[in-house]
């Protein structure tokens, strides 16, 4: 297994579970999902996770019981629950949860809390995914549809920068200075040539857009 952070979501609301897993996958985490307490117990027993996102009110076995199953492994837990009273928060944190987020919540806040908790515990995703392209930052390997893609060092760094800032227009100056680690003096041929090679190697002629007088933007959903 690579160094991708493994996250288990135990949530019986299908819409919430799908939304959370979609956004976790977008951020480069590997997400497993359980829809009730018993399935949660089974997955916890079978796998190793860097973080568990846990609903409290679950069919069969509630979140407090699952928390007791998780605690011996030392896996951090964030409660995601509609139980928003102060006494519920206190009970959840005293029971051993590392964080407590009340529904409805903003997905951006959840992602920030996930990142912060994983950073504190030393588990951080080092894999980026966009469509059928996977980028492993540790091994500096790229695959497309499971097949290796050979990139130069600068092409790799440029690809990682584009994926990490997908759907954002990036100025040529920023891209050049981030990837080449030297001041941008206005000469764009080197950067433009690398973009052209990335487009060709990945088949991303329609994904990497040229933004007039600005730079480039990687467009699309991961």
Number of strands: 12
Shape: elongated
User: Structural class, from helix and strand content?
Assistant: alpha/beta
Q: Please give the count of helices.
A: 8
Name the helicity range: 40-55%
Strand content: 15-25%
- Following the backbone from N to C, one meets helices and strands in this order, namely EHEHEHEHEHEEEEHEHHEE
- What's the Cα radius of gyration? 21 Å
Q: Give the termini separation.
A: 21 Å
**Major beta sheet, strand line-up:** 2-1-3-4-5
Report on the biggest sheet: 5 strands, parallel
| Spans where pLDDT lies below 50 across 5 or more residues | none
Look at the structure and give the mean pLDDT: 89
Description:
This protein has 222 residues and is α/β, with parallel strands linked by helices. It has eight helices and twelve strands. The chain has helices at 14-26, 37-46, 63-70, 86-95, 107-121, 153-164, 172-180, 189-202, and strands at residues 6-10, 30-34, 51-54, 77-81, 99-102, 127-130, 133-136, 141-144, 147-149, 170-171, 208-211, 215-218. The strands form three sheets. Strands 2-1-3-4-5 form a five-stranded parallel sheet, sandwiched between helices. Strands 6-7-8-9 form a four-stranded antiparallel sheet, with helices on one face. Strand 3 (51-54), helix 3 and strand 4 form a beta-alpha-beta unit. The protein is elongated, with a radius of gyration of 21 Å.
């Amino acid at each position: 297994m690579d160094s991708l952070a493994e996250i288990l979501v135990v949530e019986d609301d299908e819409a919430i579970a799908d939304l959370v897993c979609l956004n976790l996958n977008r951020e480069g985490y590997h997400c497993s999902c359980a829809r009730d307490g018993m399935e949660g117990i089974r997955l916890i027993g079978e796998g190793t996770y860097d973080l568990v996102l846990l609903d409290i009110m679950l069919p069969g076995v509630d979140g407090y019981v699952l928390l007791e199953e998780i605690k011996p492994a030392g896996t951090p837990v964030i409660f995601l629950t509609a139980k928003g009273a102060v006494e519920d928060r206190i009970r959840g944190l005293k029971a051993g949860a590392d964080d407590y987020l009340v529904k409805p919540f903003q997905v951006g806040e959840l992602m920030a809390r996930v990142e912060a908790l994983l950073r504190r515990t030393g588990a951080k995703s080092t894999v980026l995914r966009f469509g059928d392209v996977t980028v492993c930052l540790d091994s500096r390997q790229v695959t497309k549809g499971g097949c290796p893609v050979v990139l130069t060092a600068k092409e790799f760094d440029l690809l990682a920068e584009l994926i990490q800032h997908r759907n954002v227009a990036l100025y040529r100056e920023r891209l050049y200075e981030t990837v080449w680690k030297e001041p941008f003096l206005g000469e764009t041929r080197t950067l433009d040539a690398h973009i052209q090679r990335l487009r060709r190697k990945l088949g991303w002629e329609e994904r990497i857009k040229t933004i007039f007088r600005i730079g480039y933007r990687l467009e699309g959903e991961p």
